[in-house]
Amino acid sequence: MIAQAHSATLAGIEALPIVVEVDLQGGATNFIMVGLPDKAVEESKERVRTAMANSDLPFPFGKIVCNLAPGDIRKEGPFLDLPIAAAILACQGRVPPSELEDCVIIGELGLDGRLRRIDGALSVALMAAERGFRRLLLPKGDAQEAAVVPGLQVYGLETLEDMVALLNGATDLRPETLAPAPDPEELDGGFDYADVKGQRHAIRALEIAAAGGHNVLMVGPPGSGKTMLARRLPTILPPLGLEESIEVTRIYSAAGQKNGRTGLLWERPFRSPHHSASHAAVVGGGKIPRPGEVSLAHKGVLFLDEMPEFDRTVLEALRQPLEDGVVTVARVHASLSFPAECILVGAMNPCPCGFKGYPEQKCVSNPATCSRYMLKISGPLMDRIDLHLTVPRLKPDELLAAPTGEPSAAIRQRVVAARRLQSQRLGPGRVNAKMTPREIRELVPLDDECKAFMRSVMSRLNLSARVFDRILKVARTIADLNGQQRVTKPCLSEAVQYRQTEL
Question: Where are the beta strands (DSSP E) in 60-152?
């Protein structure tokens, strides 16, 4: 007898449909698995055999042939344990084969028959709904995450016996329901710009970055507060919408980065890799391609502290995702794409010792060393960073005074209002930083005074065409924060000042 169960395997963050076919035959006991299984899938044979025995479900005698179709896709991970068990049970007549036709089953079995959490539950749920399946059976800990998909009944199971009871209609188990989104203020983790002393110009620049989705580079000596400022940037970004939360959760789930959290992820990501991180860790890749830090920062912030200390190839690889919002990882057998739409915040010292240009402490780096240090970040990468800030150390009086920062909640209100204007102008979810050259010409018209000002700036500072466009994008964001319909000379003047540290 042959029985089938529907399941899935992950390729990057995408779930690909898999059909588990089991054929029970007479003869000597043997369990053969075909269909390009990896080592973890091969070991499913022993997990399924022992889990069934410990769940009072006798494992069949005879020859078992298990085919994982299609045969040209590599199957990886232990997530096919449960559908293999379901197909075997259907062959034995312990569950109706017809009950397996309209559902997708996925899960890892423990030797005692309990189910363990899996990676990529949300991707599997999206695939199941897209292909018209009615039910999804998976471990209980992943059910809340998958329940967000409309039109799909998601059942969270704790044991193999729960699956048997559900398929036989002998349980009162109900489909999982989606939990409501939490209050945004509960997700800030205790970080708030109200705790920041001084640095008002830097907070203003970060407000502009949050409003328009602009990348930022902060230059200052050690201890000036660059990390403190960057860590609070997610607190002024707009709360994640449902679609954005699904995108973020899908990446973290497929990458195995949820760290025990259930349901959707509602907080804006903040990723801060160490400067020794490899190319694959930051950009994505590996033997089994996984999302890197730039993808884990999707819809949030990627903070590169001590930016010149990162490997140059890593920094140069960020140019594509910063421009396109997507990372493409090419391998021999496949080319995978990961979303990577984030705000890059870089922090660096003005020189290797950190005190060039600051009279408080003598700089011990020679000019040649300082020049090589600054050149570690290439010109093309610098051009993709809209806001360049100088962050000086605070004076003693500022350190002794009470914090003077504006609460993040108040700044967020202005950012949300500015983003609303951009969505009306550019389309849902789009920001000024992603405007095309044609959109810049159409949506950022300059009057004669503004044209004369920009003509003077371009000739005096010798800026590239890309920098010219980015100045206009920042000026458009400043106008949105001010509630202005048109970009004015003060908006352009403020935007130009955020390019001064590179000159």
Answer: 63-69, 103-105, 108-109, 115-116, 135-139
